[in-house]
Amino acid sequence: MAVVSSPKTPDITLYTGQTPNGIKISITLEELGIPYKTHAIDITKDTQKEPWFLEINPNGRIPALTDTFTDGQTLRLFESGSIMQYLVEQYDTEHKISYPKGSRESYEVNNWLFFLNAGVGPMQGQANHFFRYAPEKIPYGISRYQNETRRLYRVLDKHLKDAGTEYLVGDKCTVADIAHWGWITAAGWAGVDIDEFPVLNAWDERMLGRPGVEKGRHVPTPHRMKEILKDKEAMDRAAKQASEWIVRGQKEDAQK
Known about the structure:
Helix content: 40-55%
Structural class: alpha+beta
């Protein structure tokens, strides 16, 4: 008779901030319904570059996560895609936000998870930088990354339309959807009009209606992107504040 091991008890601490990458993990945890502790990281004060944090993530970026592994020792995890895959493998035994390992659908989920990690996130992140934070406006940089973000959005919009499903892989919300949501819902911050992509826009609203998304997006602080995008003064103020610490951090890194 095969021995079935019991799921291990979570001992998770999430180190995070209010960013598209940060809220991926808190939403994942909320969708799975597993307990976790939160350690808010103030990236405006370079907390993520302090020695204690670099022991968890040598790259000095959020999110990061620790858990007690099956050997009883602390396990560190960094890079949001890696963290999401770990959480699914270790805790999603009922396949709430995943499909059985080795199934056709599981490989399709990986396709879209890596599409986000290699495409949407980096390209939209650069669009954010050149459009909102760069100390000098460089039209080529703005156009290059906004257009690439739009191209990637078109891929998503067409896929959802052609598939005729509510989510990226079938009619189940998976980590592929969760990974994308924080970026897509902030399209306007990159200067991209989500209304140009009606099927993707409907998906965004569908995701927002999920209780796990609603709860997880407010970790560790309230998620106010939708409200900020409706208020030009708030957008300008937020961009100015972010630009100051981003430019300062770049100078400090260049001097090391």
